[in-house]
Design goal:
Order of helices and strands: EEHEHEEHE
Largest sheet: 6 strands, antiparallel
CATH class: Alpha Beta
Strand content: 15-25%
Oligomer: single chain
Length: 123
């Protein structure tokens, strides 16, 4: 796969949500800063459930003892918000993908909020 291979609409996309009030609201819902692009990034780093299990994703990025969680959303629903989900495999995670803005303004708080509302925690 090349970094421009699109993820299928029915695939589930995983995102690591760190513990703490910056990342998780007091009511436990996902906070919008989880979807802020970092300087130099062209897409929001995620992984594909079809390749990477939530357990492997957590082992690589998170720490459940500090409140880290894994969330998921369907690629088609992400596309409906104006993002493309594209494969971007790495040696450390062959399921690595990116959510790249297509028609969405990734810098807008409303956009990040919409993504936060879309994703649900893996139980």
């Amino acid at each position: 796969m090349t970094p421009t291979d699109f993820v299928a609409d029915d695939e589930l996309i995983l995102r690591h949500i760190p513990g703490g009030t910056t990342w998780q609201k007091p009511d436990g819902t996902i906070a919008s800063p989880n979807f802020r692009l970092r300087p130099g990034e062209v897409g929001i780093s995620v992984s594909r459930l079809v390749i990477t299990s939530p357990e492997a994703f957590m082992a690589r990025l998170g720490d459940p003892t500090t409140g880290s969680r894994i969330a998921f959303a369907r690629a088609a629903d992400i596309r409906a918000l104006g993002f493309e989900a594209v494969s971007a495999p790495r040696d450390y995670d062959l399921g690595q993908a990116e959510l790249r803005p297509a028609t969405a303004d990734a810098t807008a708080k409303q956009t990040r909020k919409a993504l936060a509302m879309l994703f649900r925690y893996v139980e």
